[in-house]
Amino acid sequence: MNDDERQAEQAHRDRVDNFRLQMDESMEELPEPEQEIYSTEFADRSDSDSIMSSYSNNQSNSGRQTEYQKKAMQLHRLRDREKGGKNKRFFRFVWFIMVLFVSLLLARYLVSGVNDMLAVGRENINVTVDIPQKATPGQVAQALHQGGVIYDEDFFIFYAKMTNAPSQFGGGSYELTTGMDYEALLNSLQSNTNRVDTVKLTFREGMNALEVADLLEKNGVCTAKDAKTVFNSGSLNENYEMLQQITNSSERYYGLEGYLFPDTYEFYKNEDPEQAISKLIRNCNRKLTKQIREKAESIDLTLDQVLTLASMIQAEAADKDDMYKVSSVFYNRLKSQKPELLHLDSDPTTFYPYRKQSLVPETIRETYRSRYDTYTVKGLPAGPICNPGMDAIEAALNPASTNYYYFCHDENGKAYYAKTASGHQSNLKKAGLR
């Protein structure tokens, strides 16, 4: 090897050593991850690499570059882990603050709600609250809040749901106190104990089912349609033996006719129709005592037949004393052997369930004939034609002892009785009816 070759070899070694020294220094001072790993300085060295590559082994140089890249990637990962740790600590702190904040809000809500639920801090002041018909818990809460009974509508709704309160409330006007807790309020709204929207109604003796229904509607208790539905629904039958004994419901216009006992009752506005009508039926069941039922049995009449006969007496008689004579006429005809007398010929039965022909719907008025018409049917009609009072019931059970088969009344209520058809025709003229 000559001197020129030795110098070239020595220059090559110097360059390699210098390259190694510079790479070690570069590895100690690598740039931040977001910067380029290979800087412009490193790019300048590429010129040297190109010169060196003409002297070095290409495979060895490629291996070293791969090793440097691995170290660079390790540094990147280390820095990422350090940054990730810092981010986790930050987000954990933010999460803790959020949980603490929500917990404080929830605690405040619960404390406020529980205080409202237990009526803590509320004075006892009487207020009247109107609850809409078929009100939801939300509507109830709104009405109570507007009335100053509760403070927290949402917590009341939550409490109602947790305690399985009804999904709908009957409605009405309630007198409540602001010192009542949620449980007391819900109990009050599910009963009629605190209701103040009441109305007293008097049903006169002799009113029929249609008139009873109309009176209920006129005074805001329930609609006439709903009342008439209850009259024929049979929903109250299972509670009363007297109703269970009715065997011809399909032949009747109104199943509860005769059992809607005339009296004075207190109702609630917008009351449940069945609940309202049950008051009349319950009173009737009390009035028809054991003695009355035994008396009916002793004269071979069912309780329903007694009420049917009493309803006709109630509709025909001028006064209490007249009732007993009218009763005797019906009894005498029912016991008669003459076929024509078995038709009781009672005018109030002619257009039942309407009081008179003018009340029959116009479309059928001229041709209407009632199934209860005693001018065409023999014996008693299928059921009562009105709701009789106790005087008429007593007269039906204890008729006067007479031989009369006919009666009539003038416009002033004066009664005329006859034993024969000719005598009756004469009485009709006297009464101004002929």
Write the layout of secondary structure elements.
Layout: H1 3-28, H2 40-53, H3 58-117, E1 126-131, H4 137-146, H5 153-162, E2 172-177, H6 182-189, E3 198-202, H7 209-218, H8 224-233, H9 241-244, E4 264-268, H10 273-287, H11 290-298, H12 303-316, H13 320-335, H14 390-397, E5 406-409, E6 415-418, H15 421-430
Antiparallel strand pairs: 1-2, 3-4, 5-6
Count every beta strand, where a strand is a DSSP E run of 2 or more residues.
Answer: 6
Helicity level, as a percent range? Answer: 40-55%
CA gyration radius, whole angstroms? 51 Å
* Helix segment tally: 15
Order of helices and strands: HHHEHHEHEHHHEHHHHHEEH
Keywords:
mainly alpha, Dna Ligase, domain 1, 4 domains, two-stranded antiparallel sheet, two-stranded antiparallel ribbon, 6 strands
How would you sum up this structure, described in words?
By secondary structure, this protein is mainly α. The protein folds into four domains: 3-87, no CATH class; 126-189, Dna Ligase, domain 1; 198-287, no CATH class; 302-430, no CATH class. It is built from 15 helices and six strands.
Task: Offer a quick outline of the entry.
With 434 residues, the chain is mostly helical. The chain has helices spanning 3-28, 40-53, 58-117, 137-146, 153-162, 182-189, 209-218, 224-233, 241-244, 273-287, 290-298, 303-316, 320-335, 390-397, 421-430, and strands spanning 126-131, 172-177, 198-202, 264-268, 406-409, 415-418.
